[in-house]
Amino acid sequence: MPFPSLDQTEAKVIELCSEDDYGSWELWWHVSAGTPCNELPQLKQHLVNILTNLVASRKLISKRQNTDGGFVATRYDQAKLSRELDFAHDPDPSSYFWFGTE
Fold first, then answer.
1. What tens digit of pLDDT does each residue of 14-57 get?
2. For the whole model, what pTM was predicted?
3. What are the angstrom distances between the C-alpha of 63 and each of 6, 24, 98?
4. Which of the ends of the chain has fewer CB neighbours closer than 10 A, N or C?
5. Domains by residue range for the chain, with CATH
6. 101 near 51, Cβ under 8 Å?
7. What is the DSSP string of 7-51?
């Protein structure tokens, strides 16, 4: 079964991030659920491209978590996000990207 279109995935990401800040690994879990293993590399690039475009268009804000648990805007790095998604099974919330609309 092919994964959702760019538009469908983008809409889901925006919907989730408009409710609350989401970690990169959480977005990956939502997008990749039920996807066959052989399609995961292409889907990962699909999600990285979507997040890159949403941050560039200022529809999403890339953030990092402070030591007090709050969030602050941070510089987005596409290569870092890609590495994070490779290790989404064991995330580090204090160093991984978070995304939100505010």
1. 999 999 999 999 999 999 988 899 999 999 999 999 999 999 99
2. 0.92
3. 23, 10, 5
4. N
5. 6-100 (1.10.10)
6. no
7. HHHHHHHHHHHHHS-EEHHHHHHHHHTT--GGGHHHHHHHHHHHH
